Amino acid sequence: MFVYLIDNSPVKSLSLNIFDDYQGELKQLQIEPHLVSGHGNIGYGSAHNLILNDLKSDYHLMLNSDVVLDEQCLAQGIAYLNVNQTTAMASPLAHYEDGDKQYLCKRYPSVFTLFIRGFLPSRFQNALSNRLAHYEMHDLYAEDHGASRAEISIISGCFMLCRTAALVAINGFDEKYFLYFEDFDLSLRIQKEGNLAFVPGMKINHGGGNAAKKGTKHIWMFVCSGFRFFSCHGWQWFRY
């Protein structure tokens, strides 16, 4: 099994020496780490695509560096995909570091819903909590005991376990997204190859963060990527 560590730093700041203390475990698990660096910050999706033509696996996991996997996470996900051949990509049950549940599956958004979620103060969000709960599919997460695929349009890019063939068939991420909404776009396009699944047996912890709380540069990138997403897939202004 190959593990690719993608370093988007402007200068080479990482080396495979970070795996030195785990050589025994890597050998036992037949894991071969590879470092991809020196390309600079070319964007989230573009960096993932750097290794697209090298993939020879049945399954491919796209994973953020701030995600911690449960011990049985991958075994649960791969077992699910082995049985459910019509599924192209799977999303896990996620929690924040403080234990609060994180909603990675989404319905197709409206501009108004994203504005509420990203930019309004919490007191206004609370008044519109039903709208946000519908968008974040709280109804789906109320049943953690089984896997469900019903009406899932979008899953978060922090953890995407997919069939390699499906990812290659759609040429990976759209590289015109530098940051934000590239996972939304990929989720919609990969459904040409199969459906999306929520697999609660896959458990992760994810740090995560809100773009609106990261400064004006991130807000601008969020707005630009959002404009491209809606222009490509259809504008929804106030849909519930």
Brief synopsis:
By secondary structure, the protein is an alpha+beta fold. It has ten helices and ten strands. The protein has two domains: 1-41, no CATH class; 58-233, Alpha-Beta Complex (Spore Coat Polysaccharide Biosynthesis Protein SpsA, Chain A), CATH 3.90.550.10.
List keywords for this structure.
single chain, 240 residues, Spore Coat Polysaccharide Biosynthesis Protein SpsA, Chain A, 2 domains, two-stranded parallel sheet
How would you summarize the topology of this molecule?
Elements (H helix, E strand, L loop, with lengths): L1 E5 L16 H7 L2 E5 L7 H6 L9 E5 L3 E3 L3 H11 L3 E9 L5 E2 L2 E2 L4 H9 L2 H6 L1 H7 L2 H4 L12 E2 L3 E5 H6 L12 H9 L4 E12 L9 H18 L7
Parallel strand pairs: 1-2, 5-10
Antiparallel strand pairs: 3-9, 4-10, 5-6, 5-9, 7-8
Can you tell me about this structure?
- The mean pLDDT is 91.
- The chain has two domains: 1-41, no CATH class; 58-233, Spore Coat Polysaccharide Biosynthesis Protein SpsA, Chain A.
- The chain is built from ten helices and ten strands.
- The strands form three sheets. Strands 3, 4, 5, 6, 9 and 10 form a six-stranded mixed beta sheet that branches.
- With 240 residues, the chain is α+β, with helices and mostly antiparallel strands.
- The protein is globular and about 55 Å long.
- The chain has helices at 23-29, 44-49, 73-83, 111-119, 122-127, 129-135, 138-141, 164-169, 182-190, 216-233, and strands at 2-6, 32-36, 59-63, 67-69, 87-95, 101-102, 105-106, 154-155, 159-163, 195-206.
